[in-house]
Specification:
- This protein is low in regular secondary structure.
- Helices cover 10% and strands 0% of the residues.
- It is built from 1 helix and no strands.
Length: 88
């Protein structure tokens, strides 16, 4: 079973055209799972329209605990290093 991920356009005729150059004169079983594409501008506009939409005074953000200082990404303390032996 082969899997192909692609972006395509469905015309006004409602047909999705998929070209499979390695498949000729053979029967195949096809499963189609599709998702409509939206542009980044439309996606951002969709989310931004909900900012501040909850007008209920009982909906509050509870106080958060103080978070400890974290090591920078990629930091590994010396006591956690695994020795590497070159004489093996």
């Amino acid at each position: 079973m082969q899997s192909i991920t692609l972006k395509s356009h469905i015309g006004s005729d409602g047909l999705l055209k998929v070209h499979l150059p390695d498949m000729r004169d053979t029967d195949i079983e096809v499963v189609i799972v599709y998702q409509t594409s939206i542009s980044k501008e439309v996606e951002a506009a969709s989310v931004s329209q909900f900012y501040g939409c909850i007008q209920d005074d009982s909906f509050i953000r509870h106080p958060q605990n103080e978070q400890p200082e974290r090591n920078p990404l990629g930091y590994l303390p010396m006591d956690r290093l695994i020795p590497y032996r070159m004489d093996i």
